[in-house]
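Q: Second attempt. The first request was missing the SMILES, so the protein and S-adenosylmethionine are both included now.
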Amino acid sequence: MISAQTARQAEDCPGLAARLAAASILNDIVARYHPLDECFSGTAILSRLAGLEPRDIALTRSIVTVALRRLGTIRAALAGLLEKGIPRQAAQLEWTLIAAAAQLLFLEVPDHAAVDLAVRATRLEAKGAPYASLVNGALRNLIRAREKILQESDPLDHDTPAWLAARWRKTYGEDGARAIAAAHREEPTLDLTVLSEPLLWAERLGAAVLPTGSLRLSTHTPVTELAGYTEGRWFVQDAAAALPAKLLRVGSGTRVADFCAAPGGKAAQLAAAGAEVTAIDRSAERLKRLAANLHADVVVADIVSLKAPPFDAVLVDAPCLATGTIRRHPDIAWIKKPRDIAALTVLQARLLDKAIELVKPGGMIVYCTCSIEPEENELQISALLRRDPGVIRVPIAPDEVGGLPELLNESGELRTLPLHLRAAEPRLSGLDGFFAARLLRRG
Ligand SMILES: C[S@@+](CC[C@H](N)C(=O)[O-])C[C@H]1O[C@@H](n2cnc3c(N)ncnc32)[C@H](O)[C@@H]1O
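A: Got both inputs this time. The predicted holo structure:
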C-alpha cells in the first residue's frame, strides 16, 4: 500500500503513480501469487490503483503484463548488469527495476521517462533511497545493452519457468515446446462465440470466421464498445474454449449438467443449442454473472458430494493448472507450481467419477481442461478407462473441429495448442491449449 505522503508526491509527478503501482502489483503476483486479473478487479482498484486515471491504470496493466511475459529475459538482463545482484534490503527495489526494464525493453515509453521515474520511485522508499544512483546506472547500462539483450532472449530458455519448459519438452518435443513458448510472446486478439447469425456479425464487426465457427477480431476497439455487446449477441471466448460444449451434441430439451459452470461461457453455448442446463459450481460469487445472463437452473454446490437425479449428458470443465491460457494470462506461468498438479488430478478424477454416477446409461460426458499437462488430460482419461469398464471413449472426428485433424490426438481427443491455427500476424494466430475427451456410459 502506498503511504499518504508517497501518494501526494506521486500526484505531483505525472506517471509516477503508475510505476509505483506496477512495481507493487508485480510483487503481489510473482512473490505472493495473486492472479493478474484480481489485481485489476473492482476491489483491487480501491487499493494499489486508488486515485489513478483510467489512462494510468491501462499503462500500469501494460507494464505488468509485458513484465510477466518477459520476466526471465528481464531478470537475466538485470543479473548481468548488477555485479552484486539486487540489494535485498530495499523490498521494492527488485520490482521497480523489473517494471523499468519492461518499459525500456518492450514498451514505447521514452527512455528518460522510464529511468527518471524509476529513480524517483526508488527514492520514495526509505530503504531504497541509498540505491537511487545504482538504479540510474543499471538502467542506463540496460539501454546500452538493449539490442544484444533482445537478440539473445529465448522464449523457452528465458521466459518459461524451467519446470514448465522441461515438461513441455518431454510432452511436445523440442520443436513443439519452442513453438508453444514462442506463441506466449504475443498477446492474442479476442475470439467471439456468436449464438446466432455468425456471418452477419462477422461482417458487422470486421471479424474473420475461423474454420471452427468462432469469430476472430482484428480491431483494437474495446469489446464493450463493439456492436452487439450490450445486447449479449456474442461473448468473448477463445476459439478452442468454444469446442468442448459443441462436442456434447446436445439438442432441444436435452437435460445437461454443466459441472464447474462459472462464469458460464459453455453453459451459454449449451443453452443456445436448446438444452435444459443445470449449471453447478461451488463459487456463488462466480455464478452470479451466469445467473444474471442465462436461462438455467443454477446450483451452488461442491460437485464431489452432489446428489441429483440422472442427467442426459454432463459437461465437466474441470479446474486445472490452466497452462493452455498463458498467452492471455502470463501470470499463470509464475503463480502455478508443480506441487499444484497432484491435488488437481485427484479432484479431476473425482469430478469424472461423479459425472459417470450422474449421467443416465447411454448418456454422453465431455471432460475438458485448459491445461496442456498430460496428467490432467490424456493420462486422466486413460486412468478412468482402466478403472471403469462401464465407460467408453467416443472419438471426435475432424469435421467436428472445423476439419482440422491436427487438433485431435491419435485417440480422437481434442488437443489444441497455442501453435495451432497459425496466421501471418502473431496476434491473429494460435489457440488456447484445450483438451477434451468424449465419453459414453454404457447402456
Ligand atoms: C475452468 S473454470 C469453469 C469455466 C466455465 N465452465 C466456463 O466455461 O465459463 C472451473 C470452475 O470450477 C469450479 N470448481 C472447482 N472445484 C469445484 C467443485 N469441487 N465443485 C464445484 N465447482 C468447482 C470453480 O469455482 C471454477 O468456477
